[in-house]
Amino acid sequence: MKPGSITLAAFLLYGLSGCKSTTVVDVYRESPSAAPAADESIVVLGRRHAMDHDTETDFVTCVGQTLNGSHGRLRVIPEKQFVDTMYPYFETSTAPMDVLNLNKLVKIPVVAAKFNEFKVRYFIWVDGATETVDKAGSISCAIGPGGGGCFGFAYWEDEANYEASIWDFKQLTLSGKISTETQGTSYLPAVVIPIPLLARVQSNACKSLAAQIESFLK
Questions:
Q1: Domain that holds residue 206
Q2: DSSP the chain
Q3: Tens digits of residue pLDDT in 28-84
Q4: What's the domain count of the chain?
């Protein structure tokens, strides 16, 4: 085996052994919740009122799609479809911030009619973001007469913090909150060709949060 191959193998073993993520979940139940009926739906929406971050649309979509594919038991209305249909009541500047404001919306006839059309049982508001909290290392690439390549090693640590607030539309109460914190380190070894070894922090956070929401609604 060539020296370069040995170095690459060492990089890969180091990355694969550490390229993992861990998740901590906290569940707070405010009031009893019941599973949605077969004809009822839930809506998963992202909170985007914070000045320092916006809850990523792709993360909200991931949670919704994961719940929707959960053994076919939960019927989830896509965020974009719901927000567009309910315009302008669920835009960032007008969306209800708590259950009391949702109660006010119900008193508007056109809004009440659309809620009834969707047969909404639960609103799930997701707030949070995934951020890179640490990174180090470097990779240099060069092209010469004999060809080109890259050499080096880099890593970065991502942290995903999300909280889901579950509103019971039938009872007009806050059922509870679920928070998840996922951390993971990704690696990028390069011997001629960079090979990313990703922790997939956001994806794992999505799966963990969706699993807890499903369990909560049972």
A1: 3-217
A2: --HHHHHHHHHHHHHHHH--EEEEEEEEESS---PPPTT-EEEEEE----SS----HHHHHHHHHHHHTSTT---EE-HHHHHHHTTTTTSTTTS-SSHHHHHHHHTSHHHHHHHHHHTEEEEEEEEEEEEEEEEEEEEEEEEETTEEEEEEEEEEEEEEEEEEEEEETTTTEEEEEEEEEEEEEEEEEEEEEE--B---HHHHHHHHHHHHHHHHH-
A3: 998 877 888 888 999 999 998 766 778 999 999 999 999 987 665 789 999 999 999
A4: 1
